[in-house]
Design a protein that fits this description.
Layout (H helix, E strand, L loop, with lengths): L20 H11 L3 H20 L2 H18 L8 H22 L1 H30 L10 E7 L10 H10 L3 E15 L5 E8 L3 H5 L5 E2 L14 E4 L1 H8 L9 E4 L2 E8 L13 E4 L17 E5 L5 H18 L1 H4 L5 E6 H6 L2 H33 L1 H9 L4 H37 L14 H26 L4 H7 L6 H37 L9 E6 L9 H16 L4 E7 L10 E6 L12 E7 L3 H5 L3 E4 L13 E5 H7 L9 E4 L7 E7 L14 E5 L3 H4 L7 E7 L7 H11 L5 E6 H8 L1 H35 L1 H9 L4 H34 L11 H27 L3 H8 L1
Parallel strand pairs: 3-8, 5-7, 14-19, 16-18
Antiparallel strand pairs: 1-9, 1-10, 2-3, 2-6, 2-9, 4-7, 5-8, 6-7, 11-20, 11-21, 12-20, 13-14, 13-17, 15-18, 16-19, 17-18
Helix pairs in contact: 1-3, 2-3, 4-14, 5-12, 5-14, 5-15, 12-15, 12-17, 12-24, 13-16, 14-15, 17-24, 17-26, 17-27, 18-22, 24-27, 25-28, 26-27
Length: about 900
Amino acid sequence: MRFIPDSPPGDRRPIARKPPQRAERLLSAHLGVGPRAESILGDLREEYDRRLGELPRWIAALGYWVAAISLLLRLPRRGSRRPGARQLESLLQDVRFGVRALRASPAFTATAVGTLAIGIGATIAVFSVANGIVFRPLSLPEPDRVAVIQTNTGGPGWYGSSQPEFMDFQEGLASFESLGIWFAAEVTLEDSIAARRTRVGIVSSEVLPLLGVPPVLGRLPTAEEDLPGAPRVAVIAHETWQREFAGESSVVGRSIGLAGQTWEIIGVMPAGFTFPEPGLAAWLPIRLDPANPVNRANHNFPVVGRLRPGVAYETAASELELHTSRIRDRYPENYAVRGYRTRLQSLHERTVGEARAGVLLLLGGAVLVMLVACVNVSNLSLARGDTRRTELAVRGALGAGRGRVTRQLLVESAIVATVGGLSGLALGWAGLEALIAIAPDDLPRAAELGIDGTALLASAALVVSSICLFGLGPAVSGAGESIRSALVSARSPGGRRRRLVRRVLVVSQLSLAGVIAIAAGTMVRTLANLYRVDPGFDADRTLVFRVSPSSARYTTPEEVVAFHRELVRRLKAIPGVVAVGGHSATPLGPSGGNLSLVLEEEPDVDISAAPDGFSQIVTEGYFEAMGIELRSGRLFSDTDQADTPPVAVINESLARVLWPGQDPIGRRFRMFGRGSPFIDVIGVVADVRHGGPDEPAEPRFYVPHAQAYRTAYFSPLGYSYAIRATADPAALAAPVRAVVSELDPLAPVSAVGTMQARVTASLAHRRFVTGLLQTFGIVALVLAAVGVYGVMSLAVSDRTRELGLRKALGARGAYLVRMVLRDTLVLAAIGGAIACLGGVTTERLMRGLLYEASATDPFALLGAGSVLAITALLAAAVPAVRAARVDPMEVLKTEN
């Protein structure tokens, strides 16, 4: 309320502000002209003025709208109005009548709304996951211009490039305005309280600028700061800034301890920046020397680039292919034997990775559940329509046209769909929170998941689709029927056409549920096959963890070896410990370095023709601690020290590669280049599937930690450990931390857990997909069972006279039960056959998730068919029993 500024003193007449004009016009059109309309509008204006003096204007306007809508729904129309007002009044009448009709059928309304809410909720939850991971672009400027170059120089898979190959890309690819390399590493973050392990991005000076995301504070590293010997500078993550420095704006110029060194903070990245992976604490310069590049065969660096404006993705890919051919011809000594291939992949595709197939499969399952729900509600609507045929025919006889009756039924469907959609949106929000809680830890872009505007539009689209899917059929079939035909059919409401429609809908439900059952069954079989795979080690009663001493305290290889030797000795002394072993690459984790090898009998081999194997550095006792079996020869002992002849243990795969069909014990090999000494093979152990149970074992060799700096280029400072226990390995976590702290209080212990938990985590993605598909399958089967029950119940009601006559003529109850169940099995068989065809179609989407399983497997199809048959028979059991209990005398009395 405001007052006239130039009014005489003491004159405080308020200026009445007008209420919301649209709401007032709607009410005026509805009420017409007359004292009644003026009274109602005047009362609303006074109430609006009163609220305006006490509350903010928007709250007063909201109250006016609520009151206006309430009056529009309750008050009858008066006076003459324009055509638009009459149409609005007619629609409001349909809404009021629809609400009353749905209240009169609470069982139908609750079932329909609940069914739709389940379908829409499941779809919205999974769509939000798919949208956040697969469909939504990365949070970068022009993300479609950012791509990754991947390399293959023999063997399976794609990986990074070497430094010389990256320099070739910079010189030879004109399609890119900038190219950079990176990798992620685990380092020790030091502070005043305690050191702990964290991950950082090691990036070239081009990487952060080409991504196009500026820092919120400070600046990014320059090219001069990315050279060897340059001052150590770091850009920290937003979370690190908040956690370690309390969000102080003066953080730029301060220092942070990482990897045993002090780094000057020059910038802070914005919240939500996650390249190349979530949870990084900082980004450090890679500081490679372009004048002295590392070996062309060491493919350690992923390459990322931004395309020039206007350059098509296909153009860049073609240029990359031509460039690769030129480099292959220029360096035949590196690529002549193994080859050299590259490919261009969008950064979005690389980020999503293997999660795409599982997420899209889940989205397909949720959509099928939604379709089953719509078909179920359509069946319920048809059944309800049969009971209202007389009512609708009478309305038609009293003057309601076919369009008006159709609109009335569509309005009722819209009310059900809207309420179901709102309920489904709430369920979808709760379901999304549950999905995030149970999702695998490595699910990409998990922090970006949420119900956004796109999900709300999808929810609205589902509501409209629901109206079309289950509302149009009953509306069209229920409108326009004559009163004579309605009264005649009242005694037998299920005509042949309606029975056929209902059966088709049930078959549709069963077939859709069958497709989900086939997909879920195939994934269950995949999981069972993976759990049966021998990983090459024994995960039972094994504790694993990592110890990372500071490079500032242990500056020589001898000091590093002495630290870990003493730690092994102390860990062995813990009660309940059977064996202890340190290692550089834990199974089901990073595989270690892949190195080219030279055999003693072939010393002059070119690097392009040299075999290779993954190196792993271990201590004495590693194989016993991990339960890796010795096939021949011996394992490492305390006699294998730095001053003794270098030795190695190889796995069976490397033995087949280096000396096929021969005994490898006593043979010798060395790493390619750098004057590495020849190493004696003293033992052969079983293959270990480092990449996971569905990944083949790589050729691998093991060298003792004491000799690593002489034979394997380096001696690692941070080391993983495995402890085999006599009982529960988790109980050893506290004693292990105490032993490490006693030996070196500044050495953090991280990644503590059981090996069995790692095995389970390696299958987390497939378990997540399988569990959700099973849930969708159960929901779809329950909805399909409801549909079968409804159709069979109506069929028994329609055939009551026939069943009574059959029983009067001598038919037994068991025969009538078999007759109903036989009809049900026919529907299930048709639905199962269609589901088999759908299962064959879905296998293509599931291919990347399967392991020794197929959706076309006869056992999978037979299992899904059996589930459908059992579900249908259980649903039809009650109607079948009711058919057997039909009383012939009651039927005859009714006929008379």
